[in-house]
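DM from R.C. (forwarded with permission)

"hey, sorry to bug you on a friday — could you get me a structure for this? deadline for the figure draft is monday and I only need the backbone to look sensible"
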Amino acid sequence: MDSIYLAVAVVVGVLVGGGIAWFILNNVLNNKKESILNEAIKEGETIKEKKILQAKEKFLELKSQYERDVQDRNKKLQQSEDRLKNKERELSQQIEQSRRKEKDFDHQKENLSKLTELNQKKQADLEKHTQKAVSLLEEMAQMSADAARAQLMEQLKEEARNAAAGQIQSIVDEAKLKANQEAKKIVIQTIQRTAVEHAVENSVSVFNIENDEIKGRIIGREGRNIRALEAATGVEIIVDDTPEAIVLSCFDPVRREIARLSLHQLVTDGRIHPARIEEVVGKVTKNIEEEIVEVGKRTCIELGIHGLHSELIRMVGRMKYRSSYGQNLLQHSREVANLCSTMASELGLSPKAAKRAGLLHDIGKVPDDESELPHAILGMKLAEKFGEKPDVCNAIGAHHDEVEMKTLLAPIIQVCDAISGARPGARREVVEAYIQRLRDLENMALEYPGVSKSFAIQAGRELRVMVEAEKVTDDQADALAISLASKIETEMTYPGQVRVTVIREKRAVGIAR
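My reply, with the result:
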């Protein structure tokens, strides 16, 4: 509409003229201005009313939120107040109970003091009555209380002593039975786990040759080759009519082995003369020494023994070429080491120390220099010299009772040494010597009066003697067993040990007709 007016005014102004046109235009603009102002005022009022309404709504919302918060705080305060009241009430009750208990305690204390006074009075009266009764008893028995007490104590001691003696005997018998059973079990298990066969060593070796012509070359011109060989090896070489064989005789197995290997090299090479003999014997001796050390090291490794002195290792290797009663010394020592380890484990001792002592217990038999000392003492001194521990040294020295046993390791070594030497199959003898030894054992027992029969059993390890009950008493049978065992130790030579069992049997026969 306004635009229409404006257009009309413009047209009229163009048509009518400038003054009239300006007047009309001014009126139009004023009307436009008032219209815009009125609309702005109305719009402002509208916005004002909206903002007022929004403010009122926000105020009401905040007011309700505040009222809710106030209610929550009041509720919490009320709950806290209630809890405080409850606690105050409980505390009041506890205080009241404590007061009642205190009163009860005071009352009980008063009663206890009264009872104590009454008890003291009764105790005094009882002592008076006791003294009167004791005086009356002393007058009646004509004996003081101390004398009666002493007599009663002596009587009780005697009864206790008798009862204790019987109990001790019963305990000892039971302990012996269990100990014997357990010891047999351990020994049998140990033997079964470690027993092996042993090679029998002899004092001679046989060197086989292809033909008898070699014998002449070995003897040499005027016997110079054989003399040089005997001088270099220390072995007696027997060349006789035995076909295709030469006998090497020496008690030292190391020397016999050196002589055998030297002969083998000389015969194979074909050059046999004194200078060559000395050269070959020297090389073979060096090789044998190296082999001895290697055997010692290998033995220690197989047994799990570490830190052994090099000289002791060499002595262990030398055991390979030694024998004892036909039993190879190295095999015997290995078996004793295994036996000791097993038995020490069964008894809760150190198996490593036992195995070490078992391996070294016979090193006194393979010294470099001859000695007059017993091999057990010599072995102990060698072990001490090369840094072995005191318990191992004592076990080595005490395994034949040359020195006192100081640890439990010593009897284990002694027992295992006896087991290895005495068990069946360990050591072998010539049949004639074996049979003769059995006969000597039986004849030795028959020399005693009252002996009716004697039997050597268990391969000569036990001698059973039957005595006549009418001629030999129990005490005499005990003395006979001790005397016979002592005589066997003194007069006979045997491997291991011999058990003497004397049997005295009384038979009463009655016939009903």
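R.C.: lifesaver. Strands lie at 204-208, 236-238, 245-249, 323-324, 327-328, 451-457, 462-468, 499-505.
me: no worries. Residues 18-141 form the longest helix (124 residues).
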